[in-house]
Amino acid sequence: MTHTASAPLAPPMHETDRFTGAHMLVRALEAQGVEVVFGYPGGAIMPVYDALPGSTLTHILTRHEQGAAFAADAYARVTGKPGVCLATSGPGGTNLVTGLANAWLDSVPMVAITGQVARPLMGTDAFQEVDIFGITLPIVKHSVILDDPAQIGEVVAEAFAIAASGRPGPVLIDLPKDVAASVTVPANAPYGEPMPLPRADKDALEHAADMIRKARRPLVYAGGGIALGKATTALRRFIARTSIPVVATLKGLGALPTDAPEFLGMLGMHGSKAANLAVQNCDLLICCGARFDDRATGRLEGFAPHARILHMDGDWAEISKLKTADHGLVGDLAHMLNSLHPGALAINDWIDDCAQDKKNHTWPYDAPGDGVYAPALLKDLSQAAGDDLIITCDVGQHQMWAAQHCRFSRPEAHLTSGGLGAMGYGIPAGIGALYAEPDAQVVTITGDGSIMMNLQELATLNRYHLPLKIVLLDNQALGMVRQWQELFFDGNYSEIDLSDNPDFADLARAFGLEAFTVRTQASVPAAIKRLLSSDGPTLMHVRIDPQANVWPLVPPGADNHQMMQEEVTP
Amino acid sequence: MTLNMLLMLDPSHGALLRVLGTIERRGWVVRDMTMRSTDCEERAVRIFAHRKALHAGSAETLMRHLAKLICVREVAQETQTRPVAAATVTALGNRTSSGSQSPYYAIGAV
Questions:
Q1: Active-site residue A127, yes or no?
Q2: Per-residue pLDDT in tens (0 to 9) along chain A, 570 residues
Q3: How many CB atoms lie within 10 A of CB A281?
Q4: Is residue A421 domain-resident?
């Protein structure tokens, strides 16, 4: 590796008579512009914690390493900069694993630093020794065992550059304790600069424009790559120029504002009917930063059956990975979209058809009965919160309701565990989002299954007085599993009952949060107002119908237009 | 389908494990493998792989995934005169066969 510059070296941060590998590490993090790290101390990482006081880094002590990883993930999604988490060896490292997998599958830039037993003990089955390097090989973009104190600055710079370049991802640095504790010669910390993606050439772009010109039913399929490629503005300008209808993946929500006339909704398993019908009827599918994930496509052979495929992505390996592209463009997505000028398109009939489908399948929010109707609550909540809202989600029915019914003005405002589907993401992600945008209104939408996965982070909210608003949709069950058992396993309900849940409002109050319970639809407006106007961390516990399902639903193995709908009983 | 590849790897921790893991996770099985170190400390690895799973992607897709690994400097299909990954390398930009410049980042001034 070559490097040409280095950060100016300040005196050691404390105890000027020693300058350890750990100090070098902290200095290297500062040189990368890191402001916040999320972590949990322990034996092998203690030298690093010894070096933290006096640094410019703000350390957030979560109550579990998984919380630290999810918080760092969310911080990265909102800021676009790598999130940083720290853990000790052994269980500290293994507790990071789910967070690393989450960042890997959702392409989130993250640098995870784990302590490791001292080099002479490595390979001896020492106390709290696990091969975290080996364990995480399939779920990191890169990883390093930092076994040379002289290379600390260089390795950290490389880790940040790799995490943020191209298709982002997590990088693990495993730091043996004796390396961290070793007295070393102070050295300037190099600074890693991400390499920009190349730009597609003119001929390839002109071919793409020609495909769009010739299409009569073009459709944009927008994915998480829009936000990763910082291409939101470019996409919106492209749509303004062409008026081409747009569908989005779970991670693409917000790329076009939810209320834009061209936006037809999320596609896929729990997508809108208008979006899925458009996919099935289009004659050109313009895939922008999406990867033909099975939750989006349903039966792949039946996905967009009449369409040519124009695939634009920052990652060459995604082109034709699952669906053969008629034309692939690789590189800077924003540049591609800004460079596509197909001219006037003869697609008015198609635009009208899509608009009519959207109108015909508008969601009815007038559910009968006095109970709280989750889709209506989420719609009202996101409208009341306005454009500064950031929603973090857990995983399950509430996650899909949020995707279907909340209003998103930008992709960074919707933080969800898309690829991994990790329950427990919501609250730590809310913590990370609040450090990324302290002035934002951050709301976590969770369920009674998910909240118990990282409940301990309520203590983190209280410790740092973080004004996270939590909406807990409680159906006393693992609702999504229950729904699938009802529909696809002949109603054989197995291990989904959570009716012995604790009183969540009391529990939240025990952690120092404000909390209240909502039971009726009539009380929802006042409850939303109370939640959004509260000063500190607040939990709104909402009782919902245990039998409620998420609709529509594309059954597994079906085509996207074969959606199941709720049966309305007269 | 079978695939005969030559990969040039960095002499870094876990490079071979990453390559083998990627091949197997993407639905291929390694049937034969040889490795030697070069003068510049690269590891030249020749792998003969067989597509195991019906759902496995194409050989080209597999080589693109391998070329993305930070520790892999070059991937070439042995039966072709031009390294297949050269197209990938060009697309990613700024990668040289010497490996002196990372494909994903540059080290620059603060």
A1: yes
A2: 333 344 444 444 444 556 899 999 999 999 999 999 999 999 999 999 999 999 999 999 999 999 999 999 999 999 999 999 999 999 999 999 999 999 999 999 999 999 999 999 999 999 999 999 999 999 999 999 999 998 999 999 999 999 999 999 999 999 999 999 999 777 777 777 888 899 999 999 999 999 999 999 999 999 999 999 999 999 999 999 999 999 999 999 999 999 999 999 999 999 999 999 999 999 999 999 999 999 999 999 999 999 999 999 999 999 999 999 999 999 999 999 999 999 999 999 999 999 999 999 999 898 889 999 999 999 999 999 998 899 999 999 999 999 999 999 999 999 999 999 999 999 999 999 999 999 999 999 999 999 999 999 999 999 999 999 999 999 999 999 999 999 999 999 999 999 999 999 999 999 999 999 999 999 999 999 999 999 999 999 999 999 999 999 999 899 998 999 876 544
A3: 18
A4: yes
A65 is catalytic: yes
Q: Name residue, tokens 């409002």.
A: A505
CB A48 within 8 A of CB A113: yes
**Which residue in the list A15, A127, A529, A565 is annotated as catalytic?**
A127
Range of the domain at A379: 374-543
A480 in active site: yes
Asked if residue A267 lies in contact with residue A248, where contact means CB atoms within 8 angstroms, the answer is: yes
Nearest to A470 by CA among A437, A441, A497, A499: A441
Q: A282 lies in a domain?
A: yes
Whether the Cβ atoms of residue A440 and residue A75 lie closer than 8 Å to each other: no
B110 to A2: CB separation less than 8 angstroms, yes or no: no
User: Is the reported ipTM for this assembly greater than 0.85?
Assistant: yes
Domains and CATH numbers, chain B: 2-92 (3.30.70.260)
